[in-house]
Fold this sequence. Notes:
The protein is of the alpha+beta class.
Amino acid sequence: MLERDGYPAGVPCWVDTAQPDPHAGVEFYGALFGWEFEDRMPAEAPGHYFVARLEGRDVAAVGSQPDGAPPAAMWNTYIWVESADQTAAKAVAAGGQVVAEPFDVLDAGRMAVLRDPTGAVFSVWQAKAHRGAQLVNQAGTWNFSDLNTREVDRAKAFYGAVFGWEADRIDIGDGYLTMWRLPGYGDFLERRDPDLRRRQAADGAPPGFEDAVAWLNDELPADAPPHWAITFAVDDADGIAERAAELGGTVVMPPFDAGPTRVAVINDPQGATFSVSKYEPR
Length: 282
């Protein structure tokens, strides 16, 4: 099932981008993915938070940068938790840092911004009215997030302690990938999609893929800091890359084949990096 109404604790649930000029961000992503936007901030608020919608469902957001934040635009990943306060404490105990202490976001939820021991920043989300992305894994929506870090062992220890994640290395035919798994997530998905495991097996998915919640990459350029990255599903990676360039973005990595996917890496006009992926079962 591509529709979502909430997530289990420990599952990435939302993505947004903070932009120096959020109106320009809305124009770019609306033209690229066909998103429609609604500003969820009160009229008197100093900034904006434009929630992107596709087929009437929330899929991502473009927001203003917080005061004092670095001027660089970026995409952010949020992980669903039962308690932002307790998760922040667990993160510190596991060797991480709290970048922004837990705080309420109107009636939408409560969040905290954390840094893992390798230096990658992410957010946790304790849902109230806002229950994460409502549509995923179809063209124009968020597909997955991946942690990019050189310190794999430290990352495994941290995310295992805080969220219960396990890391499995899998063979994709022309290389290997490491997936983060949350045991039991497949059972949650299968309650809404009873055909899930059969369909994945027919597509050649590796054992345990139904529990996959993210990916882990240890191959970073020498000058790249540890970070969380995001990928959107598309119908045509080549066409989207071409369209992004026409809209003022930069194609960092032209479309290439990676296992059963065709992928491109793009910078939006304000510098936020994201990937697009077209999945083609073998």
